[in-house]
Amino acid sequence: MSRQQSSKAEKYLLDALDRISKNSYGYAVLYVSISKLKPKHRHPEFVKILGRLFDSVVGNARGYFYIMSNGDFVILGRDITQETVDEAVAKLRQGLSADPILHGKDSSEFATVFEFPENFATFYKYVEEMLVSDVQQNDGELLPAKRPVEAREIDNVIAELDEIDIAELVKRQSVIRIKGVGKFDVLFQEFFVAVKDLSLQFDRNLDLVANRWLFLYMTQALDKKTLAAFFAADLKKWPQQISLNLNLSSVFSREFVEFARNFLKPEQKVLVEVQLIDVFNNLPLYFEAKEILHKGGHKLILDGVSPAALKMLNLKTLQPDMVKLFWEPLLEDEPFNPALKEIIETLGKEKVILAKCDSDKALKWGVSYGITAFQGPFMDDIEIAMVRSRCPGAVGCTAQQCLKRRRLLSGALKAVCIHPEVLEDLL
């Protein structure tokens, strides 16, 4: 499942439509006319809440969620039916009981299904026209947009990091290796601070990521805070391998050296996950960082690589220790690609992780290419089911509660668990 929200959502949607245009049978779009709601119900914060109401619809459709420039919702996926429309409207009726558009009228006036391929051309043209004309609200009112951080403000933003307990924002997610039918183990655990969690600590109208370079500057400071947060962590069972999302420059920082030297046990190793854009922005730094990591017995992972990008990378030159591919639901409709399988085998299938796995289809796709390591919501469900099967207090809480507590490094929510020794099990 993917969620796109920006003034350029139409462009992302057109890109997705282009990818399925040759085989759009079975796909459909649920178009929810948020722009028809009263202005008070179209405040950005309210729209975000409404968006969360559609998570189950998006999940069932195995699709993508977009917020258009006029505030309307678009869900692109499979098997979207009239029942889906009614469910969507019912959800909004629960949240917006006072809005007249939701009561006493046909659901189709508020939420419409465009079935493909019959309505593909009509819907494509509609989105194309929105992109060209940059259509806003039907009544001419603009949704208040988030304001990008300005250069003069970035030092104050970084100073605010000192007031935030980063240890309570750090989360972990396992990379699961399949060892056989029904047999799994934790290859390593990734520790990270989600941007959406961090953003909640600042002015809600401030967009931390709009300016790529200012965001990079801020995350360099965040890296240091995150590394220091491990020393205050309330975690007893640490994995043998820990992965961290870091800027390349952070590998050279005093905080990273201190973390590797004073926090890690001798047998523990670090896998540093870096984004492709950071690698290509400074290739010499990439090779230098990799060399330093290797001297300490650590590794470097190329993160966020699409299968298409993998085919374009010069892996003989980059020689990453591992590559993290990102799964997209649309991949399941693409024919088997022998060239991609050959690349994975040449790189070493044990070096490839398929991330963002949200279904058994993602798992099957990865296995078909020889991949054995996976990460994502579907793997989280498998992991937490195994943990709960060992827990004597499992009946006292839900799987979702267990998952939330397991992912935390520390904090009050984690402390609620009465069997932390089971919660932290590493399969």
Global Rg? 23 Å
Strand order of the largest sheet: 7-8-10-11-12-13-14-15
Assembly category: single chain
Structural class, by secondary structure, is alpha/beta
DSSP strand content: 15-25%
- Coarse morphology: globular
* Share of helix, binned: 40-55%
Low-confidence stretches: 1-7, 135-144
Largest sheet: 8 strands, mixed, barrel
Number of separate helices: 19
Topology summary:
Layout: E1 2-5, H1 9-20, E2 27-32, H2 44-52, H3 55-61, E3 64-67, E4 73-78, H4 82-95, E5 111-115, H5 120-133, E6 147-148, H6 154-161, E7 170-180, E8 183-193, H7 195-199, E9 206-207, H8 212-229, E10 241-245, H9 254-263, E11 269-275, H10 276-281, H11 283-295, E12 299-305, H12 307-312, H13 315-318, E13 322-326, H14 338-347, E14 352-355, H15 360-368, E15 373-374, H16 377-390, H17 399-407, H18 412-415, H19 420-423
Parallel strand pairs: 1-3, 6-9, 8-10, 10-11, 11-12, 12-13, 13-14, 14-15
Antiparallel strand pairs: 2-4, 2-5, 3-4, 7-8, 7-15
Helix pairs in contact: 1-5, 6-8, 16-17
